[in-house]
Design a protein that fits this description.
By secondary structure, the protein is of the alpha+beta class. It folds into three domains: 151 residues, Gyrase A, domain 2, CATH 3.30.1360; 50 residues, no CATH class; 25 residues, no CATH class. The protein contains twelve helices and four strands; from the N terminus they run βαααβαβαααβααααα. The protein has a four-stranded antiparallel sheet with strand order 1-2-4-3. Helix 1 packs across helix 3 and helix 8 packs across helix 9. The protein is flat, with a radius of gyration of 23 Å. The chain starts with 6 loop residues before the first strand and ends with a helix.
Length: 247
């Protein structure tokens, strides 16, 4: 039952993402047909820089419906079930997660929180507990199968003993608008450490692939200029009343 670490890989994204957003937005204000606008944009008419500047201004203005036409699909592994339970709360997205019903938890991987991993005593207790859970899981599966309850029917009941630390793998697809919201919430210092690490890793990829949309993305305080968390603020930005007082 070895420890495991976060891995994020971009599987795919909407082809010609910049041109797609540009055409979608231009269609709102133009008598031309979107296919022609799109075809011209792919050819570099107007230039890529002008398209990027246009899209940046659109995002900054809050006209975000047009960026819903572009999506990113990530393969994520090395995360805990504790994280995935938070992740799937972001409802405008598609998820395909490794099943604990169909995939037997044999020598399951797990995630150790940093506060525990840095403490030798706590880490030893944690790892011992993971081994005990694995042993108990294996015993339950074995005894269920001996009673004629086999395969996924045994796994689906034995999994009730598995911990939140248990590693999972998941494929996630989000459109750009959902990603901006995800980053605004989960890149925040108040977000749980594991999902914050995931969000920051995904954000780095998105900034590289589509800077016109994601150059200014991140925790909500970055876009607002102030922290809306009140007394829970990390101090990275001034509070709203302090920010407004300076205006």
């Amino acid at each position: 039952m070895p420890e495991t670490h976060l891995k994020v890989k971009l599987l795919t994204m909407t082809p010609h993402a910049l041109a797609t957003i540009y055409a979608a937005c231009k269609q709102c204000y133009s008598s031309e047909n979107a296919p022609r606008i799109f075809a011209q944009a792919i050819k570099g008419i107007p230039s890529k820089q002008k398209q990027e500047d246009f899209v940046k201004n659109i995002v900054a203005s809050g006209h975000e419906s047009v960026i819903e036409h572009v999506s990113f699909t990530f393969a994520i592994s090395g995360i805990s079930r504790a994280l995935s339970h938070q992740l799937v709360r972001h409802r405008i997205a598609s998820y395909s997660q490794q099943s604990q019903r169909y995939v037997k938890a044999k020598n399951f991987y797990y995630i150790i929180p940093p506060t525990i991993s840095k403490d030798p005593e706590l880490k030893a207790i944690f790892k011992k507990t993971m081994k005990e859970i694995q042993k108990t899981y294996d015993i339950i599966v074995e005894k269920l199968e001996a009673r004629g309850i086999k395969g996924e029917k045994a796994h689906q009941d034995a999994r009730f003993i598995l911990p939140n630390a248990c590693e999972t793998k998941i494929v996630v697809t989000m459109n750009c608008r959902s990603l901006l919201n995800f980053f605004a919430l989960r890149c925040c210092e108040r977000a749980q450490w594991e999902i914050r690490a995931l969000a920051n890793t995904m954000l780095k990829i998105c900034k590289e692939k589509l800077p016109a949309v994601f150059a200014e993305a991140g925790p909500k305080c970055e876009r607002l200029g102030y922290c809306p968390e009140g007394r829970f603020s990390c101090g990275r930005k001034p509070l709203k009343n302090e920010f407004l007082a300076k205006e």
